[in-house]
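Subject: for your reference before the review

Hello V.,

The reviewers asked for a structural picture of the protein, and I figured it would be easier to keep everything in one thread rather than splitting it across files. Below is the amino acid sequence we used in the manuscript, unchanged from the supplementary table.
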Amino acid sequence: MSSGSFVSGNVIDGKAIAAKIRSEIKEEVSAMESKPGLATVLVGSRRDSQTYIRMKIRACEECGIRSIHNILSAEASEAEILEVVAALNADPTVHGILVQLPLPGHVNEARVLAEVSLEKDVDASTRSTSGNWPCADVRRVSCRARRADALKFCAVAVCPSRESAPSFLDEAILSDYR
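And here is what came back from the structure prediction:
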Protein backbone atom coordinates (compact mmCIF):
# COMPACT_ATOMS: atom_id res chain seq x y z
CA MET A 1 0.00 0.00 0.00
CA SER A 2 1.44 3.34 -0.94
CA SER A 3 1.73 6.10 1.60
CA GLY A 4 -1.08 8.06 -0.08
CA SER A 5 -3.53 5.16 -0.04
CA PHE A 6 -6.14 4.49 2.57
CA VAL A 7 -8.66 1.83 3.25
CA SER A 8 -12.22 3.00 3.03
CA GLY A 9 -14.93 1.70 5.29
CA ASN A 10 -18.47 2.30 6.27
CA VAL A 11 -19.23 4.55 9.20
CA ILE A 12 -22.11 3.16 11.16
CA ASP A 13 -24.40 4.89 13.62
CA GLY A 14 -24.07 2.50 16.55
CA LYS A 15 -26.63 4.30 18.69
CA ALA A 16 -29.26 4.17 15.97
CA ILE A 17 -28.54 0.50 15.31
CA ALA A 18 -28.73 -0.26 19.04
CA ALA A 19 -32.07 1.56 19.34
CA LYS A 20 -33.52 -0.36 16.38
CA ILE A 21 -32.32 -3.72 17.68
CA ARG A 22 -33.62 -3.02 21.19
CA SER A 23 -36.96 -1.91 19.79
CA GLU A 24 -37.27 -5.13 17.79
CA ILE A 25 -36.28 -7.24 20.79
CA LYS A 26 -38.76 -5.38 23.01
CA GLU A 27 -41.52 -6.11 20.49
CA GLU A 28 -40.60 -9.81 20.36
CA VAL A 29 -40.34 -10.08 24.15
CA SER A 30 -43.70 -8.34 24.69
CA ALA A 31 -45.35 -11.02 22.56
CA MET A 32 -43.91 -13.86 24.66
CA GLU A 33 -46.00 -15.60 27.30
CA SER A 34 -42.99 -16.15 29.52
CA LYS A 35 -40.41 -13.37 29.72
CA PRO A 36 -36.76 -14.35 29.27
CA GLY A 37 -34.51 -13.90 32.29
CA LEU A 38 -30.88 -12.80 32.41
CA ALA A 39 -28.97 -13.45 35.63
CA THR A 40 -25.78 -11.64 36.55
CA VAL A 41 -23.22 -12.66 39.14
CA LEU A 42 -21.04 -9.85 40.50
CA VAL A 43 -18.37 -10.68 43.05
CA GLY A 44 -16.77 -7.69 44.73
CA SER A 45 -17.22 -3.98 44.23
CA ARG A 46 -15.04 -3.01 41.26
CA ARG A 47 -16.51 0.16 39.81
CA ASP A 48 -15.96 -0.92 36.21
CA SER A 49 -17.75 -4.22 36.86
CA GLN A 50 -20.61 -2.42 38.60
CA THR A 51 -20.94 -0.09 35.61
CA TYR A 52 -21.03 -3.00 33.17
CA ILE A 53 -23.72 -4.76 35.20
CA ARG A 54 -25.76 -1.53 35.38
CA MET A 55 -25.58 -1.41 31.57
CA LYS A 56 -26.99 -4.95 31.43
CA ILE A 57 -29.78 -4.01 33.86
CA ARG A 58 -30.68 -0.97 31.77
CA ALA A 59 -30.61 -2.97 28.52
CA CYS A 60 -32.89 -5.62 30.04
CA GLU A 61 -35.31 -2.98 31.30
CA GLU A 62 -35.45 -1.34 27.87
CA CYS A 63 -36.25 -4.66 26.21
CA GLY A 64 -38.66 -6.08 28.77
CA ILE A 65 -36.26 -8.84 29.79
CA ARG A 66 -36.35 -9.88 33.43
CA SER A 67 -33.02 -9.38 35.18
CA ILE A 68 -31.85 -11.21 38.28
CA HIS A 69 -28.82 -9.87 40.13
CA ASN A 70 -26.57 -11.77 42.47
CA ILE A 71 -24.06 -9.61 44.31
CA LEU A 72 -21.48 -11.29 46.51
CA SER A 73 -18.74 -9.73 48.58
CA ALA A 74 -15.15 -9.84 47.35
CA GLU A 75 -14.49 -12.28 50.19
CA ALA A 76 -17.05 -14.81 48.95
CA SER A 77 -15.54 -18.26 48.68
CA GLU A 78 -15.34 -20.15 45.43
CA ALA A 79 -17.81 -22.64 46.89
CA GLU A 80 -20.32 -19.84 47.58
CA ILE A 81 -20.00 -18.56 44.02
CA LEU A 82 -20.42 -22.08 42.65
CA GLU A 83 -23.59 -22.49 44.75
CA VAL A 84 -25.06 -19.34 43.18
CA VAL A 85 -24.18 -20.55 39.68
CA ALA A 86 -25.70 -23.98 40.40
CA ALA A 87 -28.92 -22.37 41.63
CA LEU A 88 -29.13 -20.22 38.49
CA ASN A 89 -28.46 -23.25 36.28
CA ALA A 90 -31.37 -25.05 37.97
CA ASP A 91 -33.78 -22.09 37.80
CA PRO A 92 -36.12 -22.51 34.80
CA THR A 93 -36.90 -18.77 34.79
CA VAL A 94 -33.23 -17.96 34.11
CA HIS A 95 -32.37 -18.27 30.42
CA GLY A 96 -28.95 -16.67 30.46
CA ILE A 97 -26.16 -16.29 33.01
CA LEU A 98 -23.40 -13.70 32.97
CA VAL A 99 -20.56 -14.08 35.48
CA GLN A 100 -18.82 -10.72 35.63
CA LEU A 101 -15.04 -10.94 35.34
CA PRO A 102 -12.56 -10.55 36.77
CA LEU A 103 -13.30 -12.59 39.87
CA PRO A 104 -11.19 -12.00 43.00
CA GLY A 105 -7.74 -13.58 42.97
CA HIS A 106 -8.62 -16.38 45.40
CA VAL A 107 -11.28 -17.72 42.99
CA ASN A 108 -10.51 -20.04 40.09
CA GLU A 109 -12.29 -18.21 37.22
CA ALA A 110 -12.03 -21.18 34.86
CA ARG A 111 -13.74 -23.45 37.38
CA VAL A 112 -16.58 -20.99 38.00
CA LEU A 113 -17.11 -20.36 34.28
CA ALA A 114 -17.05 -24.09 33.56
CA GLU A 115 -19.99 -24.52 35.95
CA VAL A 116 -22.23 -22.18 33.95
CA SER A 117 -24.69 -24.33 32.01
CA LEU A 118 -23.80 -24.48 28.34
CA GLU A 119 -27.37 -23.55 27.43
CA LYS A 120 -27.29 -20.46 29.65
CA ASP A 121 -23.75 -19.18 28.95
CA VAL A 122 -24.47 -15.78 27.37
CA ASP A 123 -20.81 -14.81 27.21
CA ALA A 124 -19.75 -18.08 25.56
CA SER A 125 -16.89 -17.95 28.04
CA THR A 126 -16.17 -21.63 28.49
CA ARG A 127 -14.00 -23.76 26.23
CA SER A 128 -17.01 -25.81 25.19
CA THR A 129 -18.89 -22.72 24.04
CA SER A 130 -16.13 -20.57 22.60
CA GLY A 131 -13.34 -22.93 21.57
CA ASN A 132 -15.29 -25.43 19.53
CA TRP A 133 -17.59 -23.32 17.38
CA PRO A 134 -16.20 -24.37 13.98
CA CYS A 135 -16.89 -28.06 14.66
CA ALA A 136 -19.68 -27.72 17.22
CA ASP A 137 -22.73 -29.90 17.41
CA VAL A 138 -25.58 -27.35 17.34
CA ARG A 139 -27.16 -28.95 20.40
CA ARG A 140 -23.97 -28.26 22.37
CA VAL A 141 -23.51 -24.58 21.44
CA SER A 142 -24.37 -21.89 23.98
CA CYS A 143 -27.55 -19.85 23.94
CA ARG A 144 -25.56 -16.86 22.64
CA ALA A 145 -24.16 -18.80 19.73
CA ARG A 146 -27.47 -20.47 18.85
CA ARG A 147 -29.44 -17.24 18.57
CA ALA A 148 -28.17 -14.50 16.32
CA ASP A 149 -30.62 -12.13 18.01
CA ALA A 150 -29.01 -12.82 21.37
CA LEU A 151 -25.60 -12.10 19.86
CA LYS A 152 -26.86 -8.83 18.41
CA PHE A 153 -28.47 -7.87 21.72
CA CYS A 154 -25.36 -8.66 23.74
CA ALA A 155 -23.13 -6.82 21.28
CA VAL A 156 -25.28 -3.71 21.17
CA ALA A 157 -25.74 -3.67 24.93
CA VAL A 158 -21.96 -3.75 25.36
CA CYS A 159 -20.93 -1.30 22.64
CA PRO A 160 -23.66 1.19 21.76
CA SER A 161 -21.27 3.47 19.86
CA ARG A 162 -19.44 2.80 16.63
CA GLU A 163 -16.12 3.68 18.26
CA SER A 164 -16.41 0.69 20.57
CA ALA A 165 -17.98 -1.76 18.10
CA PRO A 166 -15.95 -4.97 17.88
CA SER A 167 -14.81 -6.32 14.54
CA PHE A 168 -17.35 -9.17 14.63
CA LEU A 169 -20.13 -6.65 14.05
CA ASP A 170 -19.53 -6.93 10.35
CA GLU A 171 -21.69 -6.23 7.33
CA ALA A 172 -23.56 -9.55 7.70
CA ILE A 173 -24.85 -8.62 11.15
CA LEU A 174 -25.46 -4.92 10.54
CA SER A 175 -27.02 -5.13 7.07
CA ASP A 176 -30.54 -5.41 8.47
CA TYR A 177 -30.12 -2.29 10.60
CA ARG A 178 -29.14 0.36 8.03
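For the response letter, the relevant points are probably these. Residues 18 and 156 are 5 Å apart (CA to CA). The domain at 14-127+137-177 is CATH 3.40.50.10860 (Rossmann fold).

Happy to draft the paragraph if you're swamped.

O.
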